[in-house]
Amino acid sequence: MLSTNLYNNIDLSRKREQQIDTLKVFNENVTEISFNKEYSVEFPTKVGNLSLVIDLGPKFPIEKPTMKICPRIIHKWVDATGQIVLAPGLMNYTIHSDLGRVVQVIRREFELDQSLILASGGSNSFSGKTAKGCIKNTNTSLTNDVEFFSLAKLTSTELLHLNNNVDCLDEFISELPSIEASNKNIENTITKIMDLANSNMSKEEPICNLRSEISKQLETIETYQKSYAGLSAKYVKLSEKYSPQSISDNLKKAAIKCDEESERIAEQFLNGDIDCDKFLQVYVKSRTMSYTRKAKEDRLNYQLKQLKEAGF
To answer: To bridge 60 with a disulfide, which of 17, 56, 78, 163 should be the other Cys (CB 3.0-4.6 Å)?
Structure first.
């Protein structure tokens, strides 16, 4: 603990007021039990409304405050007397801490804890004003709770009758507003689920028809794919066959073939196998075709060379 002498030159009264202001800024339902000394913060939890009582000692804010919860609960931060002892913010509290934020963290811990339960038979070491404040908050919570208010209207005889008769107890519980509201919500949810199920069932036939249609379209697509593959292969062969270089090669081969044919005809003429008229007719035709093809080959090669030089 830091020495008080270290802060002789600090206005502790002003810092005390600032800490109390942060308590009111960061928390709702702050009640002043004792001016500048004791305050309570009421908040809702799983087990009902609780009050966190903050006791600011005479050396606060140099010394950390004391905090107790009312009614007493079972929680890892709370000891057997209801005092908050293991909250990290409170354990590490210094003069530079914010009281409001520390209380806010503790309050949020209790509000969100779904495993929270009230302690039974425990003793609460509170001052008279604190005890009265806790009792007042508890009564207010019970009065605002419709279920407890319904029980409060019953006589002792009626309560005993409910306790001993399971059927009457079930009937009483079923007529409680919260139970009726829950049953109504359940019925509405069931209705919505049934409507959704019927809607889904009505879509089954259209979905089956669409699935069948998609299957047919997939078969058509597969047929087109096979046809496309065959046509693509045919196109590749034709493109290779009719490419300019292929045409040039074919012209060259055809011209050579015509030359060979004309040479064969000339040999037949020299050997006396064919007469002069037939020789002239066939030989001239063969040589003419050969020169024509050579001329076309030369022209095509010239054009290809020009395109190549032009960058095509």
So the answer is: 56
